[in-house]
Specification:
mainly alpha; three-stranded antiparallel beta sheet; 47% helix; globular; Lipoprotein; Trigger_fact/SurA_dom_sf
Length: 242
């Protein structure tokens, strides 16, 4: 890739690792998992192999532009229904890149867990969700909290919440399987595991969402001449209307 001017997309502003009890809040990809993702050079290079209809490709699994659009739209629609809609939306600027970042992480984690023989069943997800609901005070409280995560991507709807609970269980299971505690050495061990998986299966990002800068270890986006002054990628439709 030629050198170009880059700006952070905001996807690197992840929360620090915090685990206050064995069953962590599964409202977003856990703060611990997000911190590990932020510290992991999972994706490097020019990221030009993703097909036009894909936001990213992880191994043989594609993350379509349409699925990213649907996730972003679901969150924005749910946020607009809240009394503090303007605040919620303004504090989650860069949602599109954050969503791509999160979906890529989940795919890499799925593959790493499968390689290690870690499985999570639908029943386990349902049981963990019931635990979270009991701890937080109800399903409505869960949905409200999911729109205002600490150190993660906002979520809307059962599918997004359940997918994130599954990711959290995979994170816990994989960490236990490889003996990765939450001290710095354990975190590095987990990082190394994800890095090996990503390098083995290959990860490519649609240039529209930027690229992974190995030096900064974050998603960065080059200045795009097709954006009008003050306009961000997150403000624009991901999938062009037919």
């Amino acid at each position: 890739m030629g050198s170009s001017s880059h700006r952070p997309t905001g996807s690197s502003a992840h929360g620090s690792a915090q685990v206050k009890r064995r069953r962590t809040s599964a409202l977003s990809v856990s703060a611990a998992a997000v911190a590990l993702l932020a510290a992991t050079p999972l994706l490097t290079g020019c990221s030009t192999d993703a097909r036009p209809g894909d936001a990213a490709v992880v191994g043989d699994r594609s993350i379509s532009l349409a699925s990213v659009q649907a996730s972003v739209d679901a969150v924005r629609d749910a946020q607009r229904e809240q009394p503090n809609a303007d605040e919620l939306i303004s504090t989650t600027a860069g949602l599109t890149q954050q969503t791509v970042n999160s979906l890529v992480y989940m795919e890499v984690l799925e593959q790493a867990a499968a390689d290690a023989g870690v499985e999570v069943t639908r029943r386990q997800v349902q049981e963990e969700r019931a635990n979270v609901v009991a701890n937080i005070g109800g399903e409505e409280q869960l949905r409200q909290a999911a729109l205002m995560p600490q150190g993660g991507v906002p979520l809307a709807g059962d599918d997004q919440i359940d997918a994130t609970i599954r990711s959290q269980l995979l994170f816990q299971g994989l960490a236990q399987r490889i003996g990765a505690d939450l001290d710095p050495n354990g975190q590095q061990l987990f990082i190394d595991e994800l890095t090996r998986t990503a390098n083995r299966v290959g990860v490519d990002i649609n240039p529209r969402f930027g690229e992974w800068d190995a030096a900064q270890v974050m998603l960065v986006a080059a200045d795009e001449p097709w954006l009008r002054s003050g306009e961000q990628v997150d403000d624009l439709p991901i999938v062009d209307p037919a």
